[in-house]
Amino acid sequence: MLAINQSELALMNLPSADTMYQALLDRDAHYEGIFIVGVKTTGIFCRPVCSARKPLRKNVVFFSNCEQARRAGFRACKVCKPDTLAGSEPAWLQKLQKHLNGNERIRDIDLHQMGIDPVMVRRWFNKHYGTTFQAWQRSRRLSAAHDALQSNSSVTETAFASGFDSLSGFGEAFQRVAGCSPKHARNARMVKVKRLLTPLGPMFAAASDNGLCLLEFDDRKAMQQQLSRLQRILGAQFVAGEHPLFGQLEQQLAAYFEGQLRQFSIPLQFAGTEFQQRAWQALIDIPYGQTRSYAAQASAIGKPSAVRAVARANGQNALAIVVPCHRVVGKDGKLTGYAGGLWRKQKLLALEQSDNPPDLFRS
């Protein structure tokens, strides 16, 4: 089997072998997507967070992706399943898809009948959505109800089609989420939110008919503050649901990570001050495969002395990747802060500057 030495690790932009081995021992999720570990004694390769028994330091070798590990003769671990995208939906959730795509209300007793543990479901939704499964379902149903009411469906028809047992219950739930009664649904602004998977981990996307307004990695530390800021500026409620722009976004992201897309064309809705919007547009104007300093970005918008203000605006960019704040580096060329984590910034820049982009993320 192939062995990789320290100098080769440096060429692949990987952390030191000692750092990666400690991350493996700690099952450190911050290193998800950075490296894959091959275990010489078993011939398998794993994620950094694998729960299997930890091998000795002398028995491991590190790779930047699954394809490299396979070429070296290793096979995928059946415990952590490194072939799947990080954050992939569990098998039990896939069983629910036919029900979740409709307006049927799924209770705990229904989950039991499907052979699914309600506690497991509750924990998964709390971890990945920050809410309960029942609350998430209700949000989706009200989102669909809002669309129906916008299309002139009657309140009564919409209420029962959305899985509510009474008009009063539907009215109260809609009022809580939309801030108005169902009769005034045309005045209600709702932004649809969806979780989607990428080679660098799960992301949350949010869109309305005005465009995509959010694309953030789900582990961003200030996610809740970002959502609150967007809701306040846009005067809209964010609810779980589908939107036609999500399909377009997923197609463009897939092409981007395959190295086949250099410029996103999906409609965008900026939520910020005039200065922030100018700063974000300057990010879009940075050519693919190139980087700029904060000072150069400030000069590009005619505010050469506003370097710190530009940096703050970048920090509030709610459209990761699509508005490429990862292309801004320190004046010395070194990587600086990135809400999605510096390792992701490094991966994105490596993708855009690589002659063989798919190898960076191939599973």
Description of the structure:
By secondary structure, the chain is an alpha/beta fold. The chain has 3 domains: 6-76, DNA Methylphosphotriester Repair Domain; 91-188, Arc Repressor Mutant, subunit A (Orthogonal Bundle), CATH 1.10.10.60; 195-354, Winged helix-like DNA-binding domain superfamily/Winged helix DNA-binding domain (Arc Repressor Mutant, subunit A). It has helices at residues 6-11, 17-26, 66-71, 91-100, 108-113, 118-129, 133-150, 155-161, 167-178, 223-234, 244-257, 274-284, 294-300, 307-315, 342-353; strands at 36-39, 44-46, 60-63, 75-76, 190-196, 203-208, 211-217, 237-240, 292-293, 328-329. The strands form 3 sheets. A 4-stranded mixed sheet has the order 3-1-2-4. Strands 7-6-5-8 form a 4-stranded mixed sheet, sandwiched between helices. A two-stranded parallel sheet has the order 9-10. A hairpin with a 4-residue loop joins strand 1 and strand 2. It starts with 5 loop residues before the first helix and ends in a 10-residue tail after the last helix. Mean pLDDT is 85; it is low at 1-12.
- Write the CATH fold name of the largest domain: Arc Repressor Mutant, subunit A
Task: Give a quick account of the main beta sheet: strands, pairing sense, barrel closure.
Answer: 4 strands, mixed
Strand order of the largest sheet: 3-1-2-4
Helical content class: 40-55%
Tell me the CATH superfamily of the largest domain.
Winged helix-like DNA-binding domain superfamily/Winged helix DNA-binding domain
Q: Structural class, from secondary structure content?
A: alpha/beta
H/E element sequence: HHEEEHEHHHHHHEEEHEHHEHHEH
The CATH class label of the largest domain is: Mainly Alpha
What is the approximate shape?
Answer: flat
CA-CA gap between termini: 19 Å
Integer tally of domains: 3
Mean pLDDT: 85
